[in-house]
Amino acid sequence: MGERDFDGYRPLVRFGPGELVAWVDKRDRLRGVVPREEVRRQNLRHRSVYVFVWGAKGELLVHQRAWTKDLYPGYWDLCVSGVPRWYESNDQAAQRELAEEIGVSDAAILALFSFSYEDTKNKVLGHVYWCEIEQPVRIQGEEILVIESLRRDHVERWIGTRQVCPDSLTAWRILTGQLK
After folding, report:
1. Residue 149: CA atoms inside 13 Å, Cβ hemisphere, count?
2. pTM, two decimal places
């Protein structure tokens, strides 16, 4: 990256081992390209994609995250989600995550909205998508332990019985009009 200023700061490029992701400010401007491990260690704001996947019968596909995940291990997730690589668009990352996590390639996705989420472990600018599929899914064992499908009218009750990823829960609350 060059020496061009971005409203008083210069983007940082820090190369090292591991996956590189975009470190962004609250307005989604690039602050730097850093290893994912550094994003987690310092809780740096980064982009993330969240894809609500609906099956052929109109059921929401939810899954339990693997215990080896670096964030919210073992929690239930309402979305196929992930962090875009620094060079990927959000759309590209959403497609990649669908393929990696549930074996769905070339599915039609619809961008819905963006939101901010912060807690002591995670600080994201989230980009939310909708996807309807008819094909069977294939669990990627390094990412997902189990998948369940829920009727729309059962989702809220189900949420009350599980430890759910708070970022995807926030996206769900916005999607369903429970948060603004």
Report:
1. 12
2. 0.89
